[in-house]
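WARN no homologs supplied; continuing
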Amino acid sequence: MKLYSKENITRPIAAMRRTGKFVHSYIITGEKGLGKRTTARYLAMSLLCDNHNACGECRQCRRILKGQHPDFIEVTKEGRIYSVNDIRSKVVEDSFISPNDCDRKVYLLTDCDGWTDASQDALLKITEDPPDTAYFIFTASSKSVFLPTLISRSMVMEVSEADREGCIAAMTEHFSEKGVAVSQEKLSAAADAFGGNIGRCIDFAEGDEVLAAAADKVRAIADAAAKGDAYTLAVLLHSLSGDRNEMRSALEMLMRVIRDAAVIKAEGGGCIGCAEKQSRIMAQRFSESALLKMYDAAGEAAARCAGYCNAQAAAAVLAGKLGAV
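OK structure emitted
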């Protein structure tokens, strides 16, 4: 199993494999599509693999990849978030039961965003003094959703974007395994739109209409910004504010477009974003300092969306800042 452009994660895991000394609790963070669940499975394979190297080929690894391993427990939720009952019955109490087939058990709790302090409190004792056989993996968009006490007892791993080469390689592998032919032009367009977010690139290449519409809207936003059309800019940004996560994704695309303009301005370099034409116009129209302000404003709005603020307010503030540049 390969993690593309994830050396900040594979290196410490490899070191733990070499020494045999794994910590018992892990927090994996990153935006949707970056591969938090894939990283969690890689970590579980490192813990349970017959060959002790996440080989992806042994009996244990194959069962993990198929979602059929009795000692890799992907904890389900009774509702939208993990309840105290979920934690106590499915994790805490179960962790004291001996493993079924290995000498370890791994619990995966995905998408922990929004869960309550009470649910996390139920984990504190077990993560402070866990059974020798029990290991816990939590995923969320940011480590800020976790209590400081749980963070202090865990190894935090932030999943970053892949580089362009790694992203295209991952997409090629994905479609090859599915027996689906996708052109290099389509893969390149996906990487242009969503950078190193492999999950979103795959969805885009598979024809996700929502993501395609978001890319088109980002081009329109970049065009309005390049022309200094403050009214159209405000209308377009407001139209994104109905879904905070999608708005964040669009803003991150916009940041790459602005980044391209700054690179063109400074070096005349190539583009990694989805709107090269608009980036070149922006490079001609704005100074380097103005482009930096635009980039920072888009980044601040994206961070606000990640922090559960009002998306409409974030859109209004961003429109004002971009229109004032």
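The chain is about 60% helix and 5% strand.
OK
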